[in-house]
Fold this protein.
Amino acid sequence: MDDNLPMQISDNVTLGEDGVYRWKHEINLFKNPSIFFLVWKIFFFIFLVIFLMINLVDLILYPQNLREMFVNNLKFAGYFLIGMTIVVGLGYLIYAAMMKGKYVVRFEMTEKGVNHIQEESQAKKSKAVGRAATVSGLLSGRFSSAGAGMAAQRTEMYSDFQRVRKVKAYPRKSLIKLNGYLSRNQVYTSKEDFELVKTFIIEHCPNLDSKN
């Protein structure tokens, strides 16, 4: 027996000599919309910051017309969010079709953090699609499309357990969300490994505001 082989923790999870837990997970992009909602939330919070800044500038420059300006800004926000949802939705469907309906991801987890890594063959496609969408969006002035393209180029997400503030567990989806002040990550497992991974993460996140 080769002592250098990783220890088999379960059918899906292995523990290497380097202390890294590793597993792979496959997600049906058409049946599981969690990735779509993750991308949508990223754009929503970016827009929310911009919206608040616009209203702050209006408050300083046009205090006498504040109510009218706020109503106009609110209408613009509504139209923008509808447009953003359509753009992100169409982009997601195109992306899902190019990936043949599957998102294949590897996870590497230690006592310090967990890394969410898209499978290499898919990562190359994501980066190529993302670059094309970014350039196209910038040239056409469609900044939501450019932003979606930039997001698509990100094929790894690392969460430092020291910086995780909330852990949200969704047993039915076999999904664990790790939220920090400026970071969001999603950890997927098989149903059999869900409790194992969730317990490990919670035990190694010392600064949680709440545990779910």
Q: What stands out?
A: The mean pLDDT is 80. The chain has one domain: 7-211.
